[in-house]
Design brief:
By secondary structure, the chain is α+β, with helices and mostly antiparallel strands. The chain is built from 12 helices and 14 strands. It has 3 domains: 47 residues, Uridine Diphospho-n-acetylenolpyruvylglucosamine Reductase, domain 2 (2-Layer Sandwich), CATH 3.30.43; 116 residues, Uridine Diphospho-n-acetylenolpyruvylglucosamine Reductase, domain 3 (2-Layer Sandwich), CATH 3.30.465.10; 117 residues, CO dehydrogenase flavoprotein, C-terminal domain (Enolase-like, domain 1), CATH 3.30.390. Helices cover 35% and strands 24% of the residues. The strands form 4 sheets. The chain has a 5-stranded antiparallel beta sheet with strand order 4-5-10-6-7. The chain has a 4-stranded antiparallel beta sheet with strand order 11-12-13-14. Strand 8 and strand 9 form a beta hairpin. Helix 10 runs antiparallel to helix 11 and helix 11 crosses helix 12.
């Protein structure tokens, strides 16, 4: 099938794009890489009178270190993120998640803003954003606002973005250098085939204090509900405990214990997904703690 007819717009500035959104209303849809939207349009699962292509807006692309955070423009491709030495050093969890996204052809065109705005429950970037307490930036005719990742993902393929808002960028807390702290990061997922959406997965960040106790943690889950989710109960359970005394399997079980909207589909029942999810959390937790312990040893 082919998409229904639409009018194409290619603004060259954020203001122009926002003005078009306000003018065209519900009949307009933003497009960047198009890796999620184009198949939907081709199957006529959605129809829009106008497509607003934001790829020409240079202000929406780039990766910058800003004080203690790393900012990424919404139209920055996943491939650019995967190649970035700054991301690998300062937001390693995002760097490690990137190769798991589809195939390289998809990453060459797919964008971080598109991934976050599409809010697929099985996608990696939303879970990373939750685990790292990212901040999403949006622009509308009313001005700029910042949305914590914890408040951004609201339901199946839905977010806190207003109809006339443009996602302009996302910022992540920057990880400390190896010699400056004790942090560890890991992401694990299970998919039927390489490049498929994950049946279940987990993105984990762990911080240890000088005594080896868990001082901070973030556990983002994907493929286990209508949206990516954060395993807050599991994070609370390990706070202040020596990492060496924590059983990764227990962390995994705690992370999925309270999930009540796990999907059942042709890839597996809800019970199966929860078991796989617990295993992915346990693996990621073990790897993240291992990295943090190595950093702790290296800082002495």
């Amino acid at each position: 099938m082919k998409p229904a007819p639409f009018e194409y717009h290619a603004p060259e500035s954020v203001k122009e794009a926002v003005d078009l959104l306000a003018e065209l209303g519900d009949g307009a849809k933003l497009i960047a890489g198009g890796q999620s939207l184009v198949p939907v349009l081709a199957l006529r699962l959605a129809v829009f009178d106008h497509l607003i292509d934001i790829r020409r807006i240079t202000a929406l692309r780039g990766i910058e270190e800003r004080a203690d955070r790393v900012w990424i423009g919404a139209a920055t491709t996943e491939a650019e993120i995967g190649r970035s030495a700054l991301i690998a050093r300062r937001v390693p969890l995002l760097s490690r998640a990137t190769p798991l996204i589809g195939h390289f052809q998809i990453r060459n065109r797919g964008t971080i803003g598109g991934s976050l705005a599409h809010a697929d429950a099985a996608a990696e970037y939303p879970a990373v954003a939750l685990a790292l307490d990212a901040t999403i930036e949006a622009r509308s005719p009313r001005g700029q606002r910042e949305i914590p990742a914890a408040q951004f993902f609201t339901g199946i393929w839905t977010t806190a973005l207003e109809p006339n808002e443009l996602l302009t960028g996302v910022s992540f807390p920057a990880a400390v250098d190896i010699r400056g702290g004790r942090q560890g990061f890991a992401i694990e997922e299970f998919a039927r085939r390489p490049g498929d959406f994950a049946v279940a997965g987990a993105a984990v960040a762990v911080g240890l204090d000088p005594d080896g106790r868990v001082s901070a943690s973030g556990i983002g889950l994907f493929g286990l509900g209508p949206t990516a989710a954060r395993a807050a109960a599991a994070e609370t359970a390990v706070a202040g405990i020596a990492a060496s005394d924590i059983d990764p399997a227990e962390v995994g079980r705690a992370a999925v214990a309270d999930l009540d909207a796990v999907p059942s589909d042709l890839h597996g029942t809800a019970s199966y997904r929860k078991k796989v999810g617990a295993a992915m959390v346990a693996r990621a937790w073990e790897q993240a703690v291992k990295e943090a312990v190595i950093k702790e040893a290296g800082s002495g």
